[in-house]
Design goal:
With 874 residues, the protein is of the alpha/beta class. 58% of the residues lie in helices and 10% in strands.
C-alpha cells in the first residue's frame, strides 16, 4: 500500500495562469493566515487537491507551544458571499464532512471590498440545523486584531470540548505482585515512601491523589511502594495498576471508566467468561465484586496512573472504604469526596545528587561535588531529567560535567513549563538528543512514528528498516540513554509519554516528509498484514502452518490493539483511508470475543468513516454490517435495524451480492430478536437464496443457521432440523469453528423440541468443542442451557438443574434477560418434576419478570401458561 504525494503546479506539465478568481480566493486565505500567525498560531494550508471544504489547518499554541487542539477553516472570498444582513457560506456537498469531521470546521468570509473578515462555527451550525444549505454569518461576528484572542479562545474551547466526546479506548491493566525485583533502581523518597505506606495501612479512608509535575516520579514512587510485601498484606485481594492514558498526546485516546471495568475485573480474578458484555452491567458487576471482596476481608488496592481529569476515575472509585485507591496526575483534580491529596515535589538536593551518582557508580564525576549540585539544580531536581542527564554523562565518558552544565544553562526552554509541567523534561531531553550518537538520532525519531508509546521489536524493525537482531541492539542503546525502557515482555519497549512527545516533535522537524510517510506506511502495513492474519486465526480460516492459532492471536491483539486503534485514527487524520479501514475491521472480532463491545462499535465506525471517504460502497456495506451487528449485541435493535436496512439497500443497489447476503443475515438476526422470528424468516430465506447464488460456503452456512434458528423459535421444528443439518456441512467446508458450533447447538435445540433427545445431547456435545476453541463463552453457556433443557425432557432432573444453574449464573453476569428467563423457566419445570411446587412458582415468577424486562411476548405466554397449570393443579 503506497502513499503518493502530488506536488502543486505540475498539472498538465506546464505552468497555469492565475485567474482573478484565484487571486480573490488567495487574498482571503492570506489575510486570515497572516492574522493568525501574527498571533503565534501555527497555520498550515490544506492541499487543494484534497478539497473536503477546508482551506487551513490551525494548531493552537500557548506560550509558544502547541496545545494539542486544532481546527479546520473554510475561507470564502468575493461578493457572492455577501448578503443584505451579513454574509453566508454555501454548504454544498460538505455537510456530512463538516459535521462528522474529526476536527471542528470554522468558516471565514473575506469581504474583498472592505478587506474585513467575518467568522462562524460551521460544525456547530450544522449540528443545530443539519438541513441548512447556507450558513449565515452575522456582521457583528467580525474578526480583527483586537478580538482575535476572543475568537481563538472560543474556537479552542469548542474544539477541546468536542474532542472529549471522542471514542473510547482500550486500557492496559496489570496485576502487581509483591517484591517484584529488588528495587535497587529506586533512590531516595524515604519520607514519601513511609507516608504512602502509612496512609495505605491506615484503617480509615484509603483514597489518595498523588499530584505533581510531569517527570517528578509519581509513577516510580507508587510502583516501588505497591510492590512492598507489607502493602500486599494489607490488600490480600490484589493490587492492580491501570494506566488511564490521560496525557497520551491525543485526547481521543484518553481512558474512560467504561474501558476499565472489564480488564480490572479480570485482573482481580473475576472469571473472564462471566464479565458482562455491556458497560452498565460491567459497572454493576465491578462494584458488586469489590463489595464482596470487602465483606470477605480481601481488600484490594487500585492504582489509576496518568489521570488527566476527575471524570476518568470518579466512577471507578470503590464504594467500600477498606479498599485502597491511589491516583496519580500531573494536575490537582476536581474535588472527590474522601480523596486525600499528596503533592509530590521534586527531590531534595541531597537526593538528586544521590540519584545522579547512583546511575554512574564507576565514574569519578570530576571530583567536583559543586558541579554535580549545579547540574542537579539546572535539572530542577526532576528525577526524569536527572536520569537522562546521567545517561548522557555515562554514554560520553570523556565529556566534562562542567560542559554538560554549560549546555543545560544555554537551553532556552529549560524553565518554560507547559500546562502539564514538561518544559524541564524537554530541556533535558534536548540535551540528551544532542549527545546521542549520530546513528541513534534517526532511530529515536522514527520509533515515535509508531502511534503509541509501547512498541514491539517487530514494529520497531519495520519502522527502521533493520533486521530484528540489529534493532534490538539499537533499542538497548537508546534504553541506556534513558529514552526508552523494556515494557514487561522482553520483545517490547516503551517510551515515557513525554519522551514520546519529544521524539514526535523531533521526527516532524528532522525526517523528510516523504520518508516520514513511508515509515508510517511501513508500520501501518505491518499492523494491517499481521492483524489480518490474527483475525483469520480467530475466525478459524487461517492457512495451515500460519503464524497464529486462536490463543496466540488473542495474545497478540492484547498487546497491540491500542497501537492498531491509534494507527487507524492517525491514518484517518492523514487521509490514508484504505489502511484505516482494514486495521479497524481487523479489530472487530477480537473486541467482540473480549466482550469489549463499545470498542468493537468504535472500530466499526472508524472503518465506515474511512469507507465513506474512499467513496467505496462495498466497504461501506461491510462496515455498516459490523456496526449493525455490534448494536444488536448491545440490544440496541432499532438502531441496528436502521443501519442494516441502509446497508442492505445499498448492497442491492450496487449489485453487491455478498454484501446483500451478509446484511440480510444480520438484519434477520436483529429483526428476529426485536420483532419475533416469523418477521425474520422472509429476510433469512432471501439471504439463503443470495448465498447459494454467490456460492460462498460461509455465507450459505450462516444464512442456513440463522434461518434454522428462526424456524425453531417460530415452532416449525421439522424445517429447523432440516435447515440446520444442511448448514453444518457448509460450516465445515468454510472452516469457521465458531459458526459450526452454533449450528450444532441450534440443531440440538431443534432435535430436543421434536423429542429426539439422545440425538440432541450428542449435537450439544459436538457444539462445546467449537465454542471453547474460540473462547466464545456466550455460546458455551447457551449450550449448557439447551443441554439442561434436553436432560429435563429425558427425566434426568438433577443433571438438568446443574446445567441450567451454570448457564443462569453466566447470563445473569452479562445481563441477558431473555436467556435468564429461559433458564428460570426450565428450572421451574425441573422443580415441578421434583414435586417442589412452591419453588417452581418462584422460578416461573422470576422468569416472567425477565421476559417482561426484555419484552419477549412468546416467553411471557409460555410462563403464564405454566402458572395457570400450576394454579389449576394440573
Amino acid at each position: 500500500m503506497g502513499i503518493q504525494f502530488v506536488r502543486g503546479g505540475e498539472i498538465g506539465g506546464f505552468p497555469m495562469r492565475v485567474t482573478r478568481t484565484r487571486r480573490i480566493e488567495r487574498a482571503g486565505v492570506n489575510t486570515l493566515r497572516a492574522l493568525l500567525e501574527e498571533n503565534d498560531q501555527i497555520v498550515q494550508e490544506i492541499d487543494g487537491g484534497n478539497d473536503y471544504g477546508e482551506d487551513l489547518l490551525v494548531m493552537f499554541t500557548k506560550d509558544g507551544y502547541r496545545t494539542g487542539v486544532s481546527i479546520s477553516i473554510q475561507v470564502k472570498s468575493g461578493a457572492k458571499y455577501k448578503r443584505a444582513n451579513g454574509y453566508a457560506i454555501p454548504v454544498d456537498e460538505h455537510a456530512d464532512d463538516w459535521q462528522r469531521s474529526l476536527l471542528p470546521v470554522f468558516g471565514v468570509v473575506f469581504d474583498i471590498d472592505t478587506k474585513r473578515l467575518f467568522w462562524t462555527n460551521l460544525t456547530e451550525a450544522l449540528a443545530a440545523s443539519p438541513s441548512s444549505t447556507w450558513i449565515h454569518l452575522k456582521s457583528a461576528n467580525e474578526l480583527t486584531e483586537s478580538n482575535v484572542d476572543d475568537f481563538m479562545h472560543q474556537a479552542h474551547a469548542y474544539a477541546e470540548k468536542r474532542s472529549r466526546q471522542g471514542s473510547n479506548v482500550s486500557l492496559q491493566v496489570y496485576p502487581i505482585s509483591a517484591n517484584l525485583g529488588d528495587g535497587s533502581w529506586f533512590v531516595g523518597r524515604d519520607a514519601e515512601q513511609a507516608q504512602l505506606k502509612h496512609f495505605l495501612s491506615d484503617g480509615q479512608s484509603r483514597k489518595l491523589l498523588i499530584a505533581g509535575m510531569a517527570g517528578v516520579g509519581k509513577t516510580a514512587l507508587v510502583s516501588q511502594v505497591i510492590r512492598d510485601s507489607e502493602v500486599h498484606s494489607v490488600f490480600p485481594g490484589g493490587v492492580v495498576f491501570v494506566d488511564m492514558q490521560g496525557f497520551s498526546g491525543d485526547q481521543r485516546l484518553m481512558g474512560r471508566p467504561g474501558a476499565a471495568y472489564a480488564p480490572i475485573l479480570m485482573a482481580l480474578g473475576f472469571p473472564p467468561a462471566d464479565v458482562p458484555a455491556d458497560i452498565n452491567s460491567q459497572a454493576a458487576a465491578y462494584h458488586k465484586f469489590l463489595e464482596l471482596k470487602a465483606e470477605s476481608g480481601k481488600n484490594t488496592l487500585l492504582v489509576f496512573d496518568n489521570v488527566a481529569e476527575v471524570s476518568q476515575v470518579a466512577e471507578l472509585l470503590p464504594k467500600s472504604s477498606p479498599h485502597g485507591v491511589v491516583v496519580t496526575s500531573r494536575v490537582k483534580l476536581g474535588i472527590i469526596e474522601g480523596l486525600e491529596i499528596l503533592h509530590l515535589d521534586c527531590m531534595e538536593p541531597e537526593e538528586s545528587e544521590e540519584l545522579f551518582r547512583s546511575v554512574l557508580p564507576n565514574r569519578g564525576l570530576d571530583g567536583n561535588s559543586q558541579v554535580i549540585q549545579e547540574l542537579c539544580g539546572l535539572c530542577g531536581h526532576l528525577p526524569l531529567a536527572l536520569r537522562i542527564a546521567a545517561a548522557i554523562a555515562k554514554e560520553e565518558a570523556a565529556l566534562p560535567l562542567g560542559d554538560l552544565v554549560e549546555e543545560l544553562t544555554e537551553a532556552k526552554t529549560r524553565l518554560d513549563v507547559l500546562q502539564y509541567g514538561d518544559s524541564a523534561v524537554r530541556a533535558a531531553l534536548q540535551v540528551s538528543f544532542q549527545h546521542l550518537e549520530e546513528d541513534l538520532r534517526d532511530p529515536f525519531c522514527k520509533i515515535s512514528v509508531n502511534p503509541g508509546t509501547s512498541v514491539s521489536e517487530e514494529i520497531a524493525a519495520t519502522a527502521l528498516g533493520l533486521p530484528a537482531a540489529r534493532v534490538r541492539a539499537v533499542l538497548r542503546r537508546l534504553a541506556q540513554a534513558s529514552l526508552i525502557a523494556r515494557d514487561g515482555a522482553s520483545a517490547r519497549w516503551k517510551m515515557h509519554d513525554l519522551v514520546y512527545l519529544f521524539s514526535s516533535e523531533q521526527a516532524e522537524e528532522r525526517i523528510e516528509r516523504g520518508e516520514y510517510a513511508r515509515c508510517f506506511a511501513r508500520i501501518t502495513s505491518c499492523y494491517d498484514e499481521v492483524s489480518e492474519q490474527a483475525d483469520a486465526a480467530l475466525r478459524g480460516t487461517a492457512a495451515k502452518g500460519a503464524r497464529f492459532n486462536t490463543q496466540k492471536a488473542l495474545e497478540w491483539f492484547d498487546d497491540e490493539h491500542v497501537n492498531i486503534r491509534s494507527a487507524a485514527l492517525r491514518s484517518l487524520d492523514m487521509q490514508l483511508y484504505e489502511v484505516a479501514y482494514y486495521m479497524s475491521m481487523n479489530l472487530v472480532l477480537y473486541f467482540d470475543i473480549r466482550l469489549r463491545v463499545n470498542d468493537a462499535l468504535q472500530s466499526s465506525i472508524t472503518a465506515h468513516e474511512a469507507a465513506r471517504a474512499l467513496k467505496d460502497a462495498e466497504r461501506q456495506v461491510r462496515s455498516l454490517n459490523n456496526i449493525g451487528l455490534t448494536l444488536t449485541s448491545q440490544r440496541r435493535f432499532a438502531e441496528a435495524i436502521q443501519k442494516l436496512t441502509k446497508a442492505n439497500a445499498m448492497a442491492e443497489r450496487i449489485g453487491f451480492v455478498e454484501g446483500e447476503c451478509d446484511t440480510a443475515i444480520s438484519l434477520g438476526a436483529a429483526v428476529r430478536q426485536y420483532q419475533g422470528p416469523r418477521a425474520a424468516i422472509p429476510l433469512l430465506i432471501k439471504a439463503k437464496n443470495l448465498a447459494k447464488r454467490s456460492g460462498d460456503a460461509g455465507s450459505i452456512a450462516s444464512s442456513l443457521t440463522n434461518l434454522g434458528s428462526a424456524y425453531r423459535e417460530a415452532g416449525e421444528f421439522a424445517s429447523a432440523v432440516e435447515v440446520l443439518s444442511e448448514s453444518i456441512a457448509f460450516h465445515q467446508k468454510s472452516g469457521d469453528r465458531r459458526k459450526e458450533a452454533s449450528a450444532h447447538g441450534g440443531l440440538g435445540a431443534a432435535l430436543s423440541d421434536i423429542g429426539q433427545l439422545e440425538a440432541a445431547v450428542e449435537s450439544f456435545k459436538r457444539s462445546f468443542s467449537g465454542y471453547e476453541e474460540v473462547q466464545d463463552f456466550l455460546g458455551v453457556n447457551l449450550n449448557w442451557a439447551n443441554l439442561g433443557g434436553a436432560y429435563l425432557r429425558m427425566g434426568r432432573v438433577e443433571e438438568a438443574k446443574k446445567c441450567l444453574i451454570r448457564a443462569l449464573d453466566y447470563f445473569t453476569s452479562v445481563s441477558n434477560a431473555f436467556y435468564q428467563g429461559m433458564c428460570l423457566m426450565n428450572l421451574g419445570e425441573a422443580e415441578l418434576a421434583s414435586g417442589s411446587r412452591d419453588d417452581a412458582r418462584d422460578f416461573f415468577l422470576r422468569a416472567q419478570e425477565k421476559y417482561e424486562t426484555c419484552a419477549a411476548p412468546e416467553g411471557l405466554a409460555a410462563v403464564r401458561h405454566a402458572l395457570r397449570k400450576l394454579d389449576q393443579g394440573k
